[in-house]
Amino acid sequence: MLLKPNIKLDRITDITPLILERYNIDSLILDVDNTMSTHHGNVLTDGLLDWLNLMKENGINIIVLSNSKERRVKPFSERIDLPYISLGLKPLPFGYFRAIKKMSAKRKNTAIIGDQIFTDVLGGNTVGVKTILLTPILPESGLSFKIRRRLEKVVFKLYKIKKTEV
């Protein structure tokens, strides 16, 4: 079940404090590309700043964890006023553990939010955090992404992954 998310939603703004409370989550690790913006894009997804403020108002710890280089992640994270870890090497556990430690969080109360099964969900399940899989904002055009997305469709069918009822 390493590839099955705990929660499946369309957009980051679909995640509410009530959902987090239901799953006993008080700390969030956020992916950047196709989660908060398009792949290598700079435009924030609609409602992201209001959503981040709502999370902070509800006492949710938040950090950005991305496989991208610092020159991509730093300006993005500064723009939304969040700490970050670049070159996270997801799905390997190192970046997740660094993020959890930086937030002084507990694994059992932490969730990773991302758009990829083979990085975000696999890594999160491997280290023992909850996993929230989002629909990608915009499909990527690279060959490696096309292959991964096809493999993800197989995983969706195999594990019968559907949108979580909220």
Question: How would you describe what is shown here?
Answer:
There is one protein chain. With 166 residues, the protein is α/β, with parallel strands linked by helices. The protein has one domain (7-159): Rossmann fold. 39% of the residues lie in helices and 14% in strands. It has six helices and six strands; from the N terminus they run E-H-E-H-E-H-E-H-E-H-E-H. It has helices at 17-22, 48-57, 70-79, 94-103, 117-127, 143-159; strands spanning 7-9, 27-30, 61-65, 84-85, 110-114, 130-134. Strands 1-6-5-2-3-4 form a six-stranded parallel beta sheet. Helix 3 (70-79) links the parallel strand 3 and strand 4 (84-85). It is globular. The protein starts with 6 loop residues before the first strand and ends in a 7-residue tail after the last helix.
Largest sheet: 6 strands, parallel
| Corresponding CATH superfamily | HAD superfamily/HAD-like
CATH classification, class level? Alpha Beta
Structural domains: how many:
1
Please provide the ordered H/E string of secondary-structure elements: EHEHEHEHEHEH
Count helical runs: 6
Helix content: 25-40%
